[in-house]
Amino acid sequence: MPHRTFFWFILPTALAMILFIGLPIVSSFFQSLHIENEQVLMEVENCDPFGCTTNVRVDVEATEKIEAENPLGRFNGFGTYTDRNHLAFDEIREAWDNKTSIGEFKDTVLNLPFYKALLFTLTFCFAVTPPVIVLGFIVALSVNTLAKKLKGFIVFGTILPMIVTPLIGSLVLFWMIDSQGIIGASIQILFDDPNLSLKASSNLTWITLIIYGIWHNTPFAFVVFYAALQTVPQDPLEAAFIDGASRFERVRFIVIPHLYPVATFIMLICLMDNFRVFEPIIGFSAEGVAQSLSWMIYQDLRNENKMLFGSAGATSMLTILGIAFLLTPVLIRTWKEFKTER
Amino acid sequence: MKKLIISLLISFASTSVFAGSHSPCGVTSGSINILANEFTTYRIFMDEVKSCAGPDADFNVTHSVDHNKLQVAALSANPAEFSAKLVTNGSITPLMNDGLIRPLDDLVAKYGSNLNDNQKITIDGKIYAVAFMANAQHLWYRESILNDLGISVPSTYEEVIAAAEKIKAAGVMENPYAGAFKSGWNLGQEFVNMYLGHGGEFFKSGSAQPNVNNEKGVAALNVIKKLTELSNPDFLTQDTNAVKEEWESGNVALMHVWNSGAASLLDDEGDQNIKADTRLAPSPTVGGGDKPATTLWWDGIAIATNTSDENAEASFRALVGAASSTDLANNNPNATVWLIKGYTPGDTAGPVVDAASRGTTPYPSFPHMSLMHGALSTELVEFLQGNESAEKALADVEAAYIAKATEQGFL
User: Fold this and answer.
1) Contact B363, B297 (CB under 8 A)
2) Tens-place pLDDT, residues A132-156
3) For testing the chain A interface, which of B122, B299, B407 should be mutated: the one with the most A CBs within 10 Å?
4) What CATH architecture does domain B2-135+296-354 belong to?
């Protein structure tokens, strides 16, 4: 495609992306460099049914005046990024200086909110993505061998987990794994332990979330693999068949190499999706034991009335950086493949 | 049949004579759009508000357990998303901080002649809210279970723990205690109760510096830990409504939940044997303290600043009509402790009156309290799971609070 044609072709998309993705990111970044203006407090007398007390309140007029002069708040540079609720440089330095063992240092770091959330987010990403690719591939292979009549019905059934809204899907499962729900009660009987609860321990909650993630994401991998399977050239397959290759060998040496770029694509999308895991945490009421970066942003914006825009902005920026970092190897690989194909 | 009688009574109530020069009910102009928490007593109150507004009014109400999280954003918009909000002494503070609710003196003068003086919430000499009920968390117990094991009604948390251990040891129940320990606001509230019960102060006096990492904080956490060990292992996912369900399923013999829970726990639905066996008791003291380990709350009405005067007046009229309806209070005497004039307290009011008479602290109304509550909500979980010491958990609370309060401009 000539550059000129390409330019006009991409222009509307590029404009929309700048408007709806680029500018909001710039604005979040700008916000993340600022913190709220100082609150002016004053002493007042409050009277309620329980009596009168002297109390402090925010002097709304004085605070509004400061706000009007300085609507963005105070400039804080990268202060929010390095504070205790984000990258926590000071705390980490202190922990390193005072450590008695590496294990202790690790515990201290993973106790900081950002690193705790990062650990869960990465664990979720890397525990969910590979099984999703493998399962999606197996399901696609199986569905592909079905009789035509059955296919439409089975394909629909298979993609159901993806169609269900994540929040609803996780809520349904949350009730099912309750100790009185069908799954929870069955597991208790199976392990003969009336106190076994999937919601109680952090390990079991993490495992539940990961299994949910796999369940929810597999259909996506399946759909893409299934479409790609339709493009596998039939000639080499037939030739291999005549040469006496088993089904496994045909899949291993013909189908898999053909689907390799597709697998890279699925991995890219899955990593990106799973890095921003959020809904299952709310659905499973798992906030206590499993926090993700997206959940941190949510928490900042809905933290008991007070919206911490700067903090949320900083976490958003760090999330974007995290995704970029995570995807770099995959992108480099795709780029190399693209080059060699040329 | 019961519903019919209630609705008849309510319609009767709405036509009752008001002594003031202006009757608040029967709104014909302006629209009413209310944001409120979700529990049975509020539903009863809102039915009265609706009937007071009358059939011609443009009336909407949104009940949500997330009302706290929604309110600031919803009322900051201009025009505000809601014309009125049901507030408590906890949730009014963030609204006051940003000037999102308006002084009500004019409207009270015009329509509030039937209000008790103690219903008027005055801040710096102006009325910002009109309270209609008082609430507190307190102890609930199953009388037959305690009697069978010869346990007297616990009046301290040490006795609660001993009683629960005895019930468990006797094999009557696996998890005899319940409290709303859901990580988030509920868990934070349990700590607030227990810390105040130990005589703690959340902030260093006269400043916004946190003050929870001390002996009292550790003692409070240790009591909570013991209680959770006697609770359903899923305690971190159970809010007040989930705890009430546990109670109604007969899985629990002792619990510490809101007085207003009586409206649903003592209604005609559910297992009537459990209902007949349910008793209310004052909130226990803890660690040798003399004040019950709970907080006093009032619930009231507030009107948005960013709404038109017409909508404000319409909303105020409907709400204050209900907040001064003696019939509402006396037809539902056990739904809560009403602050309404002429109310004769029902059987269930005892624990709240007891808490108030023993000098229980109202929920702290510092402008920065919600940030402290937020830090408590998230940082205590690891201690309760046994992964962290109490001191470490409290140090984390303080550190998380400091980072947030600095960003909000309080430190």
Assistant:
1) yes
2) 999 999 999 999 888 888 888 899 9
3) B407
4) 3-Layer(aba) Sandwich (3.40)
